């Protein structure tokens, strides 16, 4: 499902973030690391992306993505890279709230694995009703009408096979033929 999601919108950072989490759970560490790096690059140097506008009640923070990147690097035994990634996450973390990252740095020094961050359980993408209502098919062209006809008093509009013509009613005038 995440593969199909990121195929449809390959700039969806939260899609790569969640796919990275699933890859870590499936012990596909290289893929997880790649997905976390893609998620961080799709943040486009923003400290966070608020997905509430799209219907997902979650804010994806850059420091969370970096923390999870470090978790994947730990699984790959890349301890120095994990430490550098966590130090980078400290820069992205809001001031005064670095206790989690300090603890993570201690765990990396002791060569202990980190548990990755994820979108909270039972959080689903639910677009607003106003946006879903717009998905109904609409007839933008309307019904076809005869704009001009060489037959006087012709009020027919639409398409159908040739009609049987009555004498004199469907006779075009001499002006119309010219």
Describe this structure as you would to a colleague.
With 178 residues, this protein is mainly alpha-helical. The chain has one domain (1-128): Serine Threonine Protein Phosphatase 5, Tetratricopeptide repeat. The chain is built from 8 helices and 2 strands; from the N terminus they run H-H-H-E-E-H-H-H-H-H. It has a two-stranded antiparallel sheet with strand order 1-2. Helix 1 (2-8) runs antiparallel to helix 2. The longest helix has 14 residues, at 29-42. The relative contact order is 0.11. The model has no long low-confidence stretch (mean pLDDT 79).
CATH hierarchy: architecture: Alpha Horseshoe
Uncertain runs are none
- Look at the helices and sheets and give the structural class: mainly alpha
Distance between the termini: 65 Å
**Total count of strands:** 2
How does the SSE layout of this entry go?
Elements: H1 2-8, H2 13-25, H3 29-42, E1 48-50, E2 59-61, H4 62-75, H5 79-92, H6 99-109, H7 129-133, H8 174-177
Antiparallel strand pairs: 1-2
Keyphrases for this structure?
single chain, 178 residues, mainly alpha, Serine Threonine Protein Phosphatase 5, Tetratricopeptide repeat, two-stranded antiparallel sheet, rod-shaped
């Amino acid at each position: 499902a995440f593969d199909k999601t990121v195929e449809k919108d390959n700039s969806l950072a939260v899609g790569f973030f969640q796919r990275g989490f699933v890859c870590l759970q499936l012990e596909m560490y290289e893929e997880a690391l790649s997905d976390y790096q893609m998620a961080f690059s799709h943040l486009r140097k923003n400290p966070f992306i608020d997905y509430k506008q799209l219907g997902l009640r979650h804010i994806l923070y850059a420091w969370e993505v970096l923390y999870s990147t470090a978790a994947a690097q730990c699984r790959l035994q890349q301890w120095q890279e994990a430490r550098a990634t966590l130090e980078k996450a400290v820069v992205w973390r809001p001031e005064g709230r670095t206790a989690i990252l300090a603890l993570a740095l201690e765990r990396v020094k002791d060569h202990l694995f980190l548990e990755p961050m994820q979108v909270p359980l039972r959080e689903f993408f639910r677009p607003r009703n106003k946006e879903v209502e717009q998905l109904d098919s609409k007839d933008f062209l309307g019904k076809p009408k005869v704009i001009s006809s060489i037959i006087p008093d012709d009020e027919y509009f639409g398409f159908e096979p040739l009609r049987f013509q009555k004498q004199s009613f469907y006779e075009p005038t001499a002006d119309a033929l010219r």
